[in-house]
């Protein structure tokens, strides 16, 4: 067990007030573990002195490492960078804001020693507003119907990934990354442990309503093409109904002569069809946008500076 090495990956965006604290609690937890570790901070283009905090840590802790981006590329990019640069036999993904309780580290490691490739820390939604938990449970019910992998409400990025799981994740090179779906997609042996929701102490959440909405849409379209199929079915149903309507009306005209043409029905039909066409166009556009982005094959992030070397050649952007 002594040569075992664990990498912590901490995506950090404007977390100056949290960096020192998270390093300290991780170090405390790891005191009791007989394994080597590194704590890899991914500074996602912070503008608040997060990077200074990280540099200070490098003097105090030999385990501290960092990657910094040239600008804010988003948490998904930060996670990807962390996974690419992590050297450990296993990686623990953790937020910088201590909302992912480090007290679970021993349990995560235990799962790894038991041979699991993913040890998932699942949070209950205690403390979330009623509106937000209703929103998320509705979302998961809907998404799980629509996509091919199953997502669990409360299972976020907080988890341990074995080297095998990390390498599998790195095989997925898509530009528009949706980690939750990717973690579910790779499969492998999984164990779930649960914890109580923790409220953020320092700083603000980086999620605005519009960011959440975009994330929700990514969840659906990143993982399947079913919405496209849905458009087709909708179109087919409407065409079928229209044909039936025409036949019935024609028979009516044949039997009773021409009725007064209905203004209301005309408008309804136009609006309905217009709406459905717009919706379909929107969905098609969504996929075309994705194809466009994929064909550009842009790197997911650019590294400004780092204290470690990437384990994969790909995507360092340099
Ligand atoms: N984060 C990041 N880049 C971003 C936004 C967030 O690296 O563009 C990091 C952030 O610093 C934190 C983690 O992702 O460590 C989770 O962010 P946050 O706490 O805002 O999300 P929430 O816990 O509210 O879901
Ligand atoms: Mg948080």
TrEMBL record:
Pfam families, sorted: Glycos_transf_2 (PF00535)
Domain Glycosyltransferase 2-like, by residue range, is 7-168
| Transmembrane region(s) | 230-254, 266-288
CDD domains named in the record: DPM1_like_bac
| Keywords from the named record | Membrane, Transmembrane, Transmembrane helix
Where does the record place Polar residues bias?
306-318
Q: Where is this region: Disordered?
A: 306-318
| Xref: InterPro entries | Glyco_trans_2-like, Glycosyltransferase_2, Nucleotide-diphossugar_trans
Write down the superkingdom of origin: Bacteria
* Protein name as it appears in the record: Glycosyltransferase family 2 protein
């Amino acid at each position: 067990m002594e040569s075992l090495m664990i990498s912590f990956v901490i995506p950090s965006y404007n977390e100056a007030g949290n960096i020192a604290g998270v390093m300290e609690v991780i170090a405390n937890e790891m005191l009791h573990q007989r394994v080597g570790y590194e704590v890899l901070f991914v500074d996602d283009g912070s503008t608040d002195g997060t990077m200074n905090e990280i540099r200070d840590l490098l003097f105090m802790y030999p385990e501290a490492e960092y990657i910094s981006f040239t600008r804010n590329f988003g948490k998904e990019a930060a996670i990807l960078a962390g996974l690419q640069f992590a050297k450990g036999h296993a990686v623990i993904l953790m937020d910088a804001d201590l909302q992912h309780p480090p007290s679970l580290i021993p349990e995560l490691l235990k799962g790894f020693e038991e041979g699991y490739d993913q040890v998932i820390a699942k949070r209950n939604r205690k403390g979330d507003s009623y509106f937000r938990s209703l929103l998320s449970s509705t979302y998961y019910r809907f998404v799980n119907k629509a996509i091919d992998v199953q997502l669990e409400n409360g299972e976020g990025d907080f988890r341990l990934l074995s080297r095998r799981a990390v390498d599998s994740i790195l095989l997925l090179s898509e530009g528009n990354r949706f980690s939750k779906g990717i973690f579910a997609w790779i499969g492998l042996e999984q164990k779930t442990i649960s914890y109580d929701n923790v409220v953020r102490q320092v700083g603000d959440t980086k999620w605005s309503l519009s960011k959440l909405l975009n994330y929700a849409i990514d969840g659906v379209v990143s993982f399947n093409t079913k919405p496209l199929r849905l458009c087709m079915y909708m179109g087919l149903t409407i065409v079928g109904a229209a044909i039936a309507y025409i036949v019935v009306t024609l028979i009516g005209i044949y039997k009773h002569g021409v009725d007064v043409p209905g203004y209301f029905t005309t408008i309804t039909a136009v609006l309905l069809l217009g709406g459905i066409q717009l919706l379909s166009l929107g969905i098609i556009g969504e996929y075309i946008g994705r194809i466009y982005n994929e064909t550009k094959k842009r790197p997911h992030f650019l590294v400004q500076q780092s204290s470690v070397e990437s384990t994969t050649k790909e995507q360092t952007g340099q």
